[in-house]
Amino acid sequence: MPTLSPSVRKSATLIYHFAERESKARYKRSILGWFWSFMNPLTTVIVYSFVFGVVYGAKAPLTSNGNAENFGLYLFTGLVVWSLFTGIVNGSMGWLTSVSDLRKKIYFPTETALLGGAAANAVQTSLEVVVLIAIMLVAANLSWTLIFLPIAVLMALFFALGLGFIAAIYNARYRDIQYLVGILLNVAFFAVPIVYTPTLLDNDDIPDIVRILVEWNPPALFVEIARDATYFLEVPQWNRMLAALAWTVVTFSIGWWYFRDQSMAISEEP
User: Fold this and answer.
1) Could you report the per-residue pLDDT of 136-151, keeping only the tens digit for each?
2) How many domains does the chain have?
3) Are 63 and 233 contacting, i.e. CB atoms less than 8 angstroms apart?
């Protein structure tokens, strides 16, 4: 029976340790702890439903059964993926910084700190997905297409890690990067159809280049695949799936290679 090599087992242990540390730090000194992981997304749905659905009167796209047209729910299906993406990209810089002293004293695969942090964020996203599925169940808006949701989440996770690996290295040298990344993500949020529907792009006043950038940028692809699976109950378009997979594989591969290539040099810097 095949067994894992000692180096693989050691790396897996370190990833688990860093994931546990990140999870504990998130709700340190909190009485209710992980309960907030359920309350935060649930509150988000309620608040957005009121603000966009009641105050602004925004109309959510039709669902397959006509029972779940709620703009807050429409937003939430996109925010689940977007929050994971931004959480990992932003978090990667902090996760590397948090082990800066340790990596100067002993050798360990530095990437395990980022993988552990990403795993902790994945657990948080899993809890949000549970809330999303529970709401869809109440609305009787569930189908076998739900199997595409974890695929969208995993692609968003590894794509974000690829960017996070690169951002973490640059931030270790120039701390301005974390602020720049924060600004870029705030701008990028509006390039993803989360607070608006893709039909807005059908307006003749919108240039074709803008329409292409919004429809085919990676986070938008991940969000739309997740929405197709959970909100519209449709099989995602194959060309979107292939494009999202290509973005994920290429970005993660480049990020992983760059991080492994530069991590030792970062460890030796003061």
Assistant:
1) 888 888 899 999 999 9
2) 1
3) yes
Task: Tell me the C-alpha distance between 127 and 130, whole Å.
Answer: 5
Cα separation of 202 and 181, whole Å?
A: 30
Range of the domain at 238: 9-268
C-alpha 181/C-alpha 256 separation (Å) is 19
In whole angstroms, what is the distance from residue 10 CA to residue 174 CA?
31
- Would 166 be classed as within a structural domain? yes
112 part of a folded domain: yes
pLDDT in tens, 150-196: 999 999 999 999 999 999 999 988 889 999 999 999 999 989 988 88
In a domain? residue 4: no
| Rounded Cα–Cα distance for residues 84 and 77 (Å) | 12
pTM for the predicted model, two decimal places: 0.89
Looking at the domain assignment, is residue 158 inside a domain? yes
> What pLDDT digit, counting tens, does each position of 218-246 carry?
999 999 999 999 999 999 999 999 999 99
